[in-house]
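User: Can you fold this complex?
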Amino acid sequence: MNREAHIAMNFMIYVILPFAGLRAVMMNYPGVVEPFMAEITMLYFLFLFVLASLSLYLRYPSLCTVISVAVSIVYINFALTSVRFFVDGAKISVNLSAMLLVLYILLSVKILVSVYSDVKQKHLSSSAD
Amino acid sequence: MKVVVTLINLLIAALFFSVVYSAANVYVQFDVGAVRGGSFTLNGDEMVTAVPVHIHNGGIYPVSDVHVLFTMSNGSRTVYSHTFTIKQIPALGDYDRTFLLGVNLSDVYSRLGAGAILNGGRLKMNILITGHYWYMATFTAVYSRSISWGPLVYSFIIYRNELSIENGILRVPYFISKIPVPVNASIDAVLMDDGTRISSVHQSIVFDHKEYILLPVGNEIPYLLTHADTLTLHYSLHIFSCTISGVEQVSWAPPLENMRFSEVSVNGTPYMALEFRNADDTPYHVSVNATVYMDSARKSLSETIFVRAGARAVLPIAPMTSSLRGVSVQITVDELNESMCMSVGEVTP
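Assistant: Here's the predicted assembly.
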């Protein structure tokens, strides 16, 4: 797959799909995501798209992965404090620590895979030289 | 490798958004109108009310181990709590159930205290729901509703001016009305006159009827039959494990008043007479047994007179001659079955 196809696929994953999903949520459940939160979400995904596209041109794409993980952690925590769990007349608290733990593990795996990929690529390049 | 990273990205996004979306799409509706409106049905000494609950799980994960905890509290004191458990509410599913809350009055009032029995108050009803999504998220929802709690006893009257005496018993009328639940109650009453304990009693309470606290006052009858007095009634009303104490000043109006010996003229002859007035609003038959002491003889006289309500009676007993030494009389009010004695002059028992 060439770079243009990758960029197109990334555009689909990081821009089109999140935008469609977010729009559907906001249309069907107007109270869940506030407009400001929606803007932040789209900026986050745009940033991920930029990083994913940029990684195609870098010698060490794992650098983009590490940045995207850091941004993701910030975004997730921000999102969880902003989402309103709306039940009429109730005080709601939602404990998502189990989910966050799984997410952090997945993000760590993502970094490891990415770094491993870079190291392997560099090793292959050295061998070719 | 890029495929793996992309898959992880998708997994993260799917997990994050689906859990948050699910957590945000639980709707819970309670109808506590029945509780607020005091719509309770009775089951023994339990007051039962219905709280319909509708839970809609709009998320894509089932909600498991849902606990619905109902509590009623008065300030910091919890007077009722009960937990209902729902094993699972399926994804995109509804759960409808009417929870029946059985409030044991004995328990509640033992915690609310005596003040609530007469005054009622406001209670805070908290509904705490806990549950979890797929072990990824646990949520807690707390609903608070304020409900009015009416008094158990809403009328407690002692008819202070309607005391009566019969067969040596002072009858203090009272009326206690309460909500229609079976309640056992008793009263301790102590009757005092100028700091002196006259009588005391412990008896069961009859609700919703005009009833009497019955105080034996045998030794006080002669005095109370003819003398007005202000008595002090100390009472302790025991309901459930609560005690309501109070003091009432009660007025005693004697059935006969102005009882005295006097001099009257009968056909020009002066007579010693017994004179009194029926101060009550009912007529009485008054029996008078008199003993007339003369120089060397005694003479007995028995008479029953009918005295209308409010009427004055004058009963000539003996001519006032030089041989008259003294007179003693025993006066009995037949309707009350009460007697008293009076004497004047030199009287030999």
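Chain B touches chain A through 35 residues (CB under 8 Å). Helices of chain B lie at 2-23, 33-36, 105-112, 114-119, 221-226.
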